[in-house]
Amino acid sequence: MKSISVNNMDSITIGLLFVAIIGWGFWGFFQKIGVSKVGAEVCILLTASIELLVVISYLASIQKLHVPRSWSLTYPILAGTSVAIGTIAFLTALEKIPVSIARPMTGLSILVTVLLGLVFLHEMLTIKHYLGIGMAIAAIFILSS
Question: Is 0.85 surpassed by the pTM of this model?
Answer without folding.
Answer: no
